[in-house]
Amino acid sequence: MRIAKVEPITTTRALRGPYDYRLPEAMAGVDVGSLLMVPFARRRMLGVVVGLATDSDLPDERLAEPIEALAAGAPPELVRLGLWVAERYCSTPSRGLALVLPPGSGAGVPRAAKALTERRAQITAAGREVLGGSARLGERQRSALSLLAEEGDLAGTELARAGADSGVLRRLEERGFVTQRAQEVRRRPKLTTVGATTGPVRLSPSQQACVDALVASLDGNGPRERLLHGVTGSGKTEVYLAVIEAALARGRGAIFLVPEIGLTPQTLGRVAARLGDGVAVIHSGLSEGERFDEWRRLRSGEARVCVGPRSAVFAPLNDLGLIVIDEEHDASYKQEGDPRYDARAVARRRAAEAGAVLVAGTATPRPESWAELDRLELPERVDGRPLPPVEVLDMREVGPRSGPLHPTTREALSSLPEGAKAIVMVNRRGFSPHLSCASCGEAVSCPSCDVSLVLHRGAGRLGCHHCGHTEPVPVECPSCGSVSIVRHGAGTERIEELVGELIAPAEVFRLDADTTGRRDGH
Q1: Considering only CA atoms, which of 214, 196, 516, 217 is closest in space to residue 378?
Q2: Sign of the torsion angle spanned by Cα atoms 97, 101, 103, 105
Q3: What is the pLDDT of residues 171-184, one digit of tens each?
Q4: Which residues in 400-434 are b (16+ Cβ under 10 Å) and which e?
Q5: CATH 3.40.1440.60 for the 2-98 domain, yes or no
Q6: Both ends of the chain: CA-CA distance in Å?
Q7: Mind listing the pLDDT tens digit for each residue in 363-403?
Q8: Could you tell me if 432 and 454 are in contact, meaning their C-beta atoms sit under 8 angstroms apart?
Q9: Where in the chain is the domain with CATH 1.10.10?
Q10: Residue 141 in 3-state DSSP?
Q11: Which of 376, 421, 423, 424 is nearest to 234 (CA)?
């Protein structure tokens, strides 16, 4: 008798598994990482097999059998990683395992995402003969056969646009004039390779030395954890790509972590331009169907490189040989929700268990990385140019009437030569990050978080950037009734407005979470 140790996927903290289920002979293929639909507390629940046994502490008559075994599951090594995350970060096994499951499985219900298929039709020899004969054919049937005879193989959607709907194709298939089949269609994330280098790149001596050292580590002749310390513009990405190519040449996969979703399309474009279609991307900005297809490509081995933010550290790659953490100092590698994991620590754990090389790259390393990791240096920029000059402006030197822009900044923007460009970086979204009453001093704050609500003038709303609460802009103070509501500070919306006034009629566009939150917004 085989016993499956199953962790139910649930959000509650009260459950402590795993729970034993008796596996019937029909489920002989179930292994660690398999997904099972099991009876649990008078309902159906999704569970992950975390272990197998030959007996149970419970008598056989008290053991239930799984309802069904689902097709996709997580690799056993990722099951161990998910349980480690749960233990290290004081979470539940269910929440730790949800990180490594196929997209759509983490809520404890059957996957909503599934493979997308389309119907394709092809003309038969009998269909070609009937086109030239006198057999009775409707106008749409004859049109469909003519189109198939010309093109050879077409999707049902293409034929439908030509007037041949599913009913027409079904009747033609019944008469033996066409054959139809279902073909899987991959949902592909949008890929941008503008400016990406496709050919071989000539590395500088410093870059080549770093590549040689990292390749030696891949071959087991050096430290398995490295810090690539390089100044801005020193060509760290080209070093990463060269080492990823070396890992692939040795039959091993690679994970390339970037700190923000906004950087993922740019990095993916560079990696895909060099490495081709064997690159997958995983991040929360994709649709569930796209994430599912990319996850399956990685699981099957069709894709051998995964690019993405912190969640990509759980990509189901087999024979992992390399993990790259770009900008390893960035705080966004820490997950804010439960489980509150640090992707850098998870990457170190996964690399150690897989025998992979870990490369953490940055110009400003964290103290712990500086102390713990073997260092490689890229001391100069690739083109040999010095870093741009930096001038620190003290806002205390100017009065509040000058607004959020320093006079020096105003002068620099207003005197831009024709055709020149400028980037103004602001660390706050919205128009104004704080509103208060001029009469009583009452601040407009979130009813849930007790933090200031941010004015988004374009949307005409106040919003909390912590919990997502929104409300209309008040016309009077809720405490004293005064209509003197004062705005404090400046966010990206206000800076966009001020810069537009300075450089008119030149164009200004704003790039923040409000303008790029839509699909493919970046």
Answers
A1: 214
A2: negative
A3: 888 888 888 888 77
A4: eeeeebbeebbeebeeeeeeeeeeeebebbbbbbb
A5: yes
A6: 54
A7: 999 999 999 999 999 998 887 778 788 999 988 888 777 78
A8: yes
A9: 116-185
A10: helix
A11: 376
Q: Alpha carbon of 69 to those of 3, 10, 36, 110: distances in Å?
A: 14, 18, 5, 11
**311 CB neighbour count, 10 Å cutoff:** 17
**What pLDDT is recorded for position 134?**
63
In the chain, % helix, strand, coil (3-state, to 5) comes to 35, 20, 45
Among candidates 432, 411, 422, which has minimal Cα distance to 502? 411
Peptide bond into 474 cis (omega under 30): no
Domain with CATH 3.40.1440.60 in the chain: 2-98
List Cβ neighbours of 280 (8 Å cut-off, separation of 6 or more): 294, 297, 298, 303, 305, 306, 307, 315
Taken in order 266, 270, 271, 272, the sign of the CA dihedral is: positive
What is the CATH number assigned to the segment(s) 116-185?
A: 1.10.10
CA distance 460 to 395: 29
Encoding tokens for residue 140? 């749409």
Architecture of 205-378 per CATH?
Answer: 3-Layer(aba) Sandwich (3.40)
Q: Which two tokens stand for residue 301?
A: 């081995």
Residues of the chain with CATH 3.40.50.300: 205-378
Tell me the C-alpha distance between 382 and 232, whole Å. Answer: 10
Residue with tokens 């069904």: 68
Based on the number of CB atoms within 10 Å of its own CB, is 515 exposed (0-12), middle (13-18) or buried (19 or more)? middle
User: How many helices and strands in the chain, by DSSP H and E?
Assistant: 15, 20
Integer Cα distance of 37 and 39 in angstroms: 7
